[in-house]
Amino acid sequence: MHAFIRARLDDVDAAHRQVESMLHATSVEQRSWRPEPDAWSILQVLAHLNATADAYHPRAQRLIDRLRARDETRSDGYRPSLLGRLTVYLLGTSSTIKLKAFGPFTPKTYAGDEIDERCIEHYRTQQLQLRILLEQADGLSLNRLSMAEPVSPLLRLSLGEAFEALTAHQKRHLAQIERIRHHPRFPLS
Fold first, then answer.
1. N or C end: fewer C-beta atoms under 10 angstroms in the chain?
2. CB 169 within 8 A of CB 10
């Protein structure tokens, strides 16, 4: 397996463990709590990650299908472009720049057991789908073709850049969930 793909799969597995641990340790009330009226709850963070995956995954699947159809099955490593590196930086945990979600990426206000379960199941499904996409991409050229970036169709990311952006974005928001959980006013149960 290509080292880049293995690293992204490790990212997905680490995120899965972190989210499952958080879910086990929190109640529906805690997952719906917001530290400030304009701040997101844990559930809204997960809903945002779901919306992001809903936008990226079909694009990545189409790119994988195109690469397979063109028989681009040689792995030429992963070399991010300047735009790719910038995108990953801005979406990652190292960035101190606060980015505002908009349009379909803005989560709604959620509360209640049924919505909580639907959002969590959607997240789990998206994580499984990301794992499948990564496994399908192993051995393909991660740089050869690009896809329109869902936030701005004028920007294009290679398959490798899209995968790295997705996992960096997820790490950023999982760190946000931890900040919510450690907020001084976070409900005890």
1. C
2. no
